[in-house]
Amino acid sequence: MNFFRYDKVYDFVKISSYAIVLSAILFITSLVLMVKPGFSLGIDFAGGTIIQIQYDKQAPLQQIRGILEDIEAYKGVQVSEFGAPEEVLIKLPTATSQVDKNIGDEISEALKETGSFTIRRVDIVGPRVGDELKEKGTIALILALISIMVYVSYRYEWRFALAAVLALVHDIVIATGAIILFDIDLNLDVIAALLTLIGYSINDTIIIFDRIRETIGTRVNNSLSDVINEALSATLSRTILTSLTVFFVVLTLYLFGGEIIVGFSLPMLVGSIVGSYSSLFVASKLVVLMKFDLKKYNQKLADAEKKALEKKKMREMYERGRI
């Protein structure tokens, strides 16, 4: 299926000059958000207790907050609506008040005067476990980036590899900025979304770079901008179809999945847009900015092919006993 004329070449390189400015603004803004206000650590990393309760009518948030704040063991409690007026999420900074008591029963007893409700979920993570999860989540992200960097460096000329990795970092940083902007707790769901986004984004970029490399071999006398424009135009329908498929799936998750899955769906929603945008406009433009020399690259390919033919000829002569 083609949404665009197959024989029409669009000037992506010219448009990407403006896209780079937009990317720089979004990237710097995301970095500033990481510093201030910074991440809001979820229970997976910070430790503590989360209790989700459901009332049969609109929850009295102020009354709940006041009751729990008056209890010494629950100082610093956070009470918020969770997706619906009847749903309440209670976050306690401590794992539990007493080891020999059930925290759910304690909350039920403390809030019995606030109305009829049921406890739907109780999650408890100790601070030691939270630190361990934070460390492993960070290591997973770093190892994923390093592995992709090694693979792309092996497969492509170094400028293409560096451009692909920089575009990938661009996508992750902007998606992370969206996490902070929308006040989503940093937890394992978010880490899973970022790891998924890494795979999605680099796959899109590699497919486009493959087409650029193929076009380089058939357009020896063309300029680098012409080669990139032709390659991007040829893969445009595929990129749009893939992007829309992922976008509508994660949009459905975000709209109908509820608050419980927003830590995964929102980063993926932002990342699916930014990842496709960076593959088309950022990664290829970075190759141009790095002064990739098309003539030198073609000469290098020609020399490599010549050496391969010479080796093949020498091997054939050796096998026939002429050496």
Automatic annotation (TrEMBL):
Keywords: Cell membrane, Coiled coil, Membrane, Protein transport, Translocation, Transmembrane, Transmembrane helix, Transport
Subcellular location: Cell membrane
Signal peptide: none
Gene3D superfamilies: Multidrug efflux transporter AcrB transmembrane domain
Membrane topology, record value: Multi-pass membrane protein
Main location as per UniProt: membrane
Residues covered by the Protein export membrane protein SecD/SecF C-terminal domain: 109-291
Pfam family, one: Sec_GG
Residues passing through the membrane, by range: 12-35, 137-154, 161-184, 190-209, 240-262, 268-290
Positions in coiled-coil regions: 287-314
Family: Belongs to the SecD/SecF family. SecF subfamily.
Subunit structure: Forms a complex with SecD. Part of the essential Sec protein translocation apparatus which comprises SecA, SecYEG and auxiliary proteins SecDF. Other proteins may also be involved.
Function of the protein: Part of the Sec protein translocase complex. Interacts with the SecYEG preprotein conducting channel. SecDF uses the proton motive force (PMF) to complete protein translocation after the ATP-dependent function of SecA.
HAMAP family listed in its UniProt record: SecF_B (MF_01464_B)
Protein's UniProt name: Protein-export membrane protein SecF
The species this protein was found in: Helicobacter ibis
This protein's encoding gene: secF
